[in-house]
Amino acid sequence: MRITRTRGGRGRKAAVLTTTVLTASALLLTGCSDDGGDSDTSDSNGNITLKVADFGQFGYKEADLFAKYHKLHPNITVKEETTANEQDYYPKLLQQLNTGSGLGDVTGIEVGRIKEVVDTQAAKFTDLSKTINVADWVSWKEKQATAKDGTVIGAGTDIGPMSLCYRKDLFEKAGLPTDREAVANAVKGGWEDYIKLGEKFKAKSPAGTYFMDSASAMYNAVVGSSPQQYYDADGKAIYKDSPSVQQGWNLSAEAASKKLTQGLPQFTDPWKAALRKGTIATVACPAWMAGQISINSGDAYKGKWDISRAPGATAANWGGSFLAVPKSGKHVKEATELVKWLTAPEQQAAVFKAIGVFPSNKGAYELADVKDAKLPYFSDAPIGQIYAEEAKAIPETVLGPKDATIKDTISTQINNMEKRGTKPADAWKAATETIDKVIG
After folding, report:
1. Distance CA 69, CA 72 (A)
2. What is the mean pLDDT of the chain?
3. I need a surface site. Which of 50, 298, 342, 417 has the fewest CB within 10 A?
4. pTM, whole model, 2 decimals?
């Protein structure tokens, strides 16, 4: 998931020799547009313009990568054409693929769409396996962009390894541990332990505070940490019988019934207001979420937040994208080389330093800008180490073409249990009926 954001801005301790500090503004993604270039542009002197079409914020402009690439390749100018909202971008991309016009030399593809693109549009993209070394990426990442014939249509950009963001001051007032290792130990048994910790918090919590922002966020983390989610390997929708979906649903219903959640869908105005008022004690926290929390919580809560490992032995991934090269482009060779360079360790580390999205190329994890990164707002949490370790614990998952639709529909009904008091059986019936109408 790469949401549109507004500008505001495991036992695994390692010695930190050089500290890279990421600010709140560096972790806040922004949906903005740069001047779009014409992918057909070239002149008699061999100068060409490559258009990179993407959405939200990939961080290339903030890390000054296009200017650096031009210095390395004086005959190549890169222009970025950005659509703020991915939900607007994707239908346009499909239309361009169907008509064969308007495409960028390089196109971004969100992880929630990659399975559908691999299954239905792979023949229209360049096979990047001949250019990139897929072993350089976390193994599950490049497999998501690999077709059945071995064609790799996308090079991985960022990923969203899960962690747990929590308010140290609220934990202390509720008599809970505040040290990040102690918190990780308290939930090491999984999300069931997280619920138990929430019950302890509620028993002694300050008035007007809630253990978690929304049960749907926890649900996404539970399902995301399982290899099998909404589809099986044959492409059959199995969400009704999926153990991870059932586990996530039952835990969400339990959290709602025990009033452990404030029932606020993430990224909504009420959710932002709750962060600003300081009423939320924990948030299921993919790598990019820290920016959302820090900006919306504001200066008053700097140093009161911290980040610990996610509950359980396996981690979840929430978010991430790919760069692909359409075969119909005028400069396929040059575009492919650009993709290889943009997704190399050094460039992914530069993007992480600039805006906080975590690399999918494993080589970046050993670079100082990632390995030694700390986040002052979150009590100097060693996020480079935490996210790298979580990335290694993410299982290879089976993706389906309508994963996003299923997840969003279930999340809506979880919110109805929280805010409207809808009975779990009624909420589940409403969710499944809606999903079945959409996916057939």
Report:
1. 5
2. 90
3. 298
4. 0.84
